[in-house]
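Deliverable D4.2, example record:
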Amino acid sequence: MSLDNDKTKPSKARENGERASSRQIVVHSQYIKDLSFENPNAPEILLDSPKQPDVEITVNVGARPVGDAQFEVLLNLGAKAKTDDKSLFLVDLTYAGIVSCPEVAVEDVNPMVMIEAPRLLFPFARAIVSDVTRDGGFMPLNIQPVDFVAVYQHNLSKQKETAS
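Output generated by the structure prediction step:
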């Protein structure tokens, strides 16, 4: 009886004599860089049963090199909730991580840092926003998953517009 085990078969890249490229990202640390929560109309807004609020969410990603082949990735999540003409709450979180991309081709580092790193940081930032809104007296705000490829492409187009 023979077992067909993928680990024993060489990959197509190795069969063709090419070096298999690993696309790995390492998160060395993650932390809250800045957190702000405002409840400007408390306690009145908490005493009245407010209607369903309008919530505006903003997402931004930035990065800067720190140290040798490491980057600080900044994921900013902002949320503003209003009902009628009154603000319920404002949240602004900058969640950061120190990442590196060992053995990644130079041309692939920017997309890895600006897409994959925020994708890894997002669940933690989302939980912080949920907790802080709950602790502020409101229903927890659960932010839907973010398409970081679209955020990356939007930021690239903004950079091109600024350069021209």
